[in-house]
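Thread: quick sanity check before group meeting

JM: Hey all, I'm pulling together slides for Thursday and realized we never actually wrote out the predicted structure for the chain we discussed last week. Dropping the sequence here so it's in one place. If anyone has concerns about the input, flag it before I start.
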Amino acid sequence: MRPEPRSRDETLALRRRLIGSSCKLFFSNDPVKIVKAKGQYMYDENGRQYLDCINNVAHVGHCHPAVVKAAHEQSQLLNTNSRYLHDNLVNYAERLSKTLPGKLCTFYFLNSGSEANDLALRLARQYTKHEDVIVLDHAYHGHLTSLIDISPYKFRNLEGQKEWVHVAPVPDTYRGLYREDHEDSVTAYANEVKNIIEQAQKRGRKIAAFFAESLPSVGGQIIPPAGYFQKAAEHVRKAGGIFIADEIQVGFGRVGKHFWAFQLQGEDFVPDIVTMGKPIGNGHPIACVATTTEIAEAFAATGVEYFNTFGGNPVSSAIGLAVLDVIEKEHLQAHATEVGNFLTELLKEQKMKHPIIGDVRGSGLFIGVDLIKDQAERTPATAEAEYLITRLKEEYILLSTDGPGKNVLKFKPPMCFNKEDARFVVDTIDKLLTAMEKEDLNQQKTSAGAT
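JM (edit): ok, ran it. Output follows.
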């Protein structure tokens, strides 16, 4: 028998008593209690509808009926581990293989993006016989100990940087080392990787992998300049390492133009390993690592079995297949391009109107709005960004911030997010920024009058 629903305050009190305090809530001062969701909308206990602008996990839409049906039907037949033969596992691997470059033809299935990245790290070290890893600054690759060690976003606040970890500058052409006015930011950023390798080799270190999110998300919704991965990979491979593309936030058609975000770099770029999570199962815990035959064979040569109890089970695989079906049948990749371009143009119009908007960047339905205090220094407008997302919540829009300065509004909505939603969000942002500017002007006048 299902228990009676609790009030929001009762649920909050129980959470504070029973759940670890490091498990943070969105809008912690006034959290939202969500009880159901559909498509790009979420509903609280009072039936109020919120527009979800950040939930890239519910990739094809919350509670998509085709995904729910696939899970339900397979759950009634069988769910067991992958040591038994089952068509769903191989059918899913075959479908995924058709979306990737031909050399990425061997798959491992897991439960989460963190597990996928941990396995990718193991594969790289076994294949290269090296230990060291190069990562981008501010990166986040997962919550396992091995991944905290390669996530500057986390380790800078914990035990610090390990000897075998090397941090390269984020290829950010808005506020990074080499900006939009640099004559060749691609080569300049790639040379930073080259210099890191050379310095590491002088100390007797050997590079196993360059580990990078195809589009850095926690780092501030960054779009690396095309060609950067090719040049960085050239330096890494020359040193005996491999390139790992973390697609956990941005894969499965989110960028619109391509199915995978690494493909934005150009047709000539192919990673050695690709990791997948979050959107792969539309909220169901499933993840994947795709790699080459050579790397997989080197991993198997240890003689140690790789076994994941739930990875690739029949229900997970059925859900994964359903997600791919929905992306294809509902033309969500083309939809991401069309709606993403529309949203980007609306936001760029606001940039011309509101000086606090320093940059609008993105691809498809992966978009960042960089809020700044001043145009010259591009100082992050952290407090203003926090205030804005709090006010948006009060207008029934769920948005969040990211980036080192917590000043970048990040748009990663379910792929069914539409033009009407985009217009609603931007009109609301315009209204709130206009009010903020008016309040700031009034304060300036008051201060001037007082002096």
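AS: nice. The CA atoms of residues 3 and 11 lie 13 Å apart. The chain has a mean pLDDT of 95.
JM: adding both to the slides.
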